[in-house]
Write a structure and sequence with these properties.
- The structure is a single chain.
- The protein has one domain (2-162).
- Helix content is 39%, strand content 37%.
- The chain has helices at residues 2-43, 142-162, and strands at 53-60, 65-72, 77-83, 87-95, 98-108, 113-118, 126-130, 132-138.
- Strands 1-2-3-6-7 form a five-stranded antiparallel β-sheet. The chain has a three-stranded antiparallel β-sheet with strand order 4-5-8, covered by helices on one side.
- The longest helix has 42 residues, at 2-43.
- The protein is elongated and about 80 Å long.
- Keywords: Signal.
- Residues 1-25 form the signal peptide.
Length: 163
């Protein structure tokens, strides 16, 4: 009977550890997504596009998607989206003399970025795929870029565990 009780205790301890680990991965994933959302919206540079762009939406969802939607004054809408599981790396290209203003390139493993254009008077509605998503950013320091890259890689590892 003592052996049965000991085995029962071991199984219950192992089961409780698995349950707590599963919930902690979800909490870590939610924190990472909130941080990524904050970083991208905080550094987004709307001043470079204010004449053309009426408004924009930049979201990192809890299902692991990064979405960027731009609404133009002409009525045209551009939509970019990719699953963070497909994230490969990021690049930054500064504009002009300033390195604090530039474009952030979020690269994927293949053509995994969904690109959709609506209400375009010149080209019509277009659906295509791309290898990267470009986001205009400002006040982006090297430390911010490395932190953003590390967190995207970390999320890339956590997302398959969640599913």
């Amino acid at each position: 009977m003592k052996k049965f009780t000991l085995n029962l205790r071991i199984c219950l301890c192992a089961l409780s550890c698995v349950i707590f680990t599963a919930f902690s991965a979800k909490v870590i994933l939610d924190e990472e997504m909130a941080y990524l959302q904050k970083m991208l919206t905080e550094h987004y540079d709307s001043s470079r596009e204010e004449k053309e762009i009426k408004r924009y939406e930049l979201n990192v969802t809890n299902s692991g998607f990064c979405r960027y939607k731009r609404y133009f004054s002409s009525g045209k809408v551009e939509y970019f989206s990719f699953n963070l599981i497909k994230f490969k790396g990021l690049d930054y290209q500064g504009i002009s003399d300033s390195t604090e203003t530039g474009n952030l390139f979020l690269r994927t493993r293949g053509e995994d970025v969904i690109v959709q254009t609506y209400n375009d008077k010149i080209g019509g509605d277009v659906d295509s795929m791309a290898c990267f998503m470009t986001i205009p950013v400002k006040n982006m320091k090297a430390r911010d870029l490395s932190d953003l890259s590390e967190r995207l890689v970390k999320m890339n590892a956590l997302l398959p565990v969640q599913k």
